[in-house]
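Changelog note: in this version the structure field was regenerated for every chain. One regenerated record is shown below for reference.
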Amino acid sequence: MKTLSILGSTGSIGTQALKVVRKLNRDGCAMFRIAALAAHHNVELLEEQAREFRPEIVAVYDSEAAADLRVRLRDMSVRVLKGMEGLCEAAALEGAEVTLNSVVGMVGLRPTLAAIKAKKTIALANKETLVAGGALVMGLAREKGVDILPVDSEHSAIFQCLQGNNKKELRRILLTASGGPFFGRTREELEGVTPQQALNHPNWSMGAKVTIDSATMMNKGLEVMEASWLFDVPPEKIQVVVHRESIVHSMVEYSDRSVIAQMGAPDMCLPIQYALTYPRRLPSPVEELDLFKVQSLHFYPPDLNAFPCLDIAIRALKRGGLAPAAVNGANEEAVGAFLEGKLPFMRIPELCARAMERQPDCPADSVEAVLGADMAAREFVRSVISQEKI
C-alpha cells in the first residue's frame, strides 16, 4: 500500500487521481491510502472527498473556506488546516510516501519544496514549480535524493520513452501539442475570440487556466521549460510538434535516429496512474487505443506568428534567471483578466513579452527572488489593465 497526499484534490487532475485510486482499490487489495487532501476553496467537493477517503488532514488555501470546512467536518476526527502553511504541512505530512502536486499556479512552489525537504516522492502536475523555480527544485531534489515523476501527459510520455535507454544517447525530444481550439487560425482571426470559445478544447478536459494556456500555446511553452528541467536537456534539443489527434503524447529521438513514441487515448488517468504506481503498470480505466478507428495521424509545425506565447516562453528559458518567473506570473495574471472579460485574447502574449523585457537579469537562487519576480510581473499586468482601462 502507498500512502498519498493530494494537493489540488478538487481540480481536474486531483479528481481524476482519486478516480484512479478508487479503481485500483476496488480491483486490488487497497493499494492506496489517502493521508492528506488539499484544495483552494471548493469546500463542498472537499467535504465529500474527506468523508469518502478519511484523510488525517485536509488543507484549504482560502482562510474563509477553511473555517467553513472546519464546521462541516466537526463530526470527524480530521484536522483542517488553512493557507500556505496548511498546504506545506499537507505536502510534507509524516507517513505519506508520495505527494501529488496538482494545484494550479505559483502557489504550488512552496509545497513542492516542502515535500522534497521531507523526502517525499513527487508526482508533479504543477508546471509552474519547474517553470519559475526549476533550479531550486531540481537542485534540492538531487540533494535529498528525491524522485520527481511527471504527471503531464507529454512529460510522462518522454519519461516512459527514456526508460531502459542511455540518456547520453538522446538526440532530441519531440514534444507534441494538440494545437488547441484555434489551430489554423491567423493572428488577425484570433483578435476577437471569447473566453467561451477558448475554453472549448477539442481533445482534453482540463481546468480553465490550463485550457486557455492551450489556446494561446503558452501551455506548450511552459512544457518546454518543464521538460528542459526534468530531463536536463537544453531548449535547442526540444522540438514542438503540433499533433491534432493527441494520440502520440510525445516522442524521443536517439543518436541513431531511432524515434520512440508513447501513444494512448487522450485521457489523463493514464499518466496519473503511471506516476502513482511507478514502476508498475496496472490495468487502468482508460479506453483501449483502436488504431483501426484512428486510421491516420497528422503532424504540423507550430505557427509562432499566430501563437507568439510559445516563442516568448522559449526565449525566457534561453535567457534564464528570473525571466521564466516573470513570464509565468504575467501569464497567470493576464489569463485571469481574459477569463473575466477585462483583456482581449491577443493582449496576453503582448503583456507576457513586456513583463519579460522589464525583468532584470538576476539569478533564480531563492524562493524570495522567484516569488518577487512573479509578483512584480503580476503587478505590471494589473497596472497596464488599470491604466488603459482595457
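Spot check on this record: DSSP finds 16 helices and eleven strands in the chain. The first strand starts at residue 2 and ends at 7.
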